[in-house]
Amino acid sequence: MNHLYTWGSIMAVVVASVCGDVLTSLAMKRVGDLDEIRRRRGLGGAIAAVTSSGTLWLGVFFMALAFFALLFALSRADVSLVGPASASLTFIGNAAAGKAFLRERVDKRRWLAALFVAGGVALLAA
Question: What is the 8-class DSSP label of residue 3?
């Protein structure tokens, strides 16, 4: 039962972190080039463009959720498992979510790296 709580909390960290990363990336792609916005409207305009994005705030919410899920996971399991497992699974999740939701080009090297990361997670779990 303890393994279920450990891996469940790690997966909560991963899902929340991937959601936060994807939403933040989507928001910044919608906002556009901040250097160009700063040139046209000044620093205040660039800050306003970023902070007025609801998608960005949703991404920040998910990142905060990931942080608190990480705290919960660390209270249940060793940092030597939670840290590498959550970080590496987030790497894999970001590659898949970038491809699926942001239509990013994920080349063979990244998929191969994700495969090696998955192997490392399997070694951790053993």
Answer: H
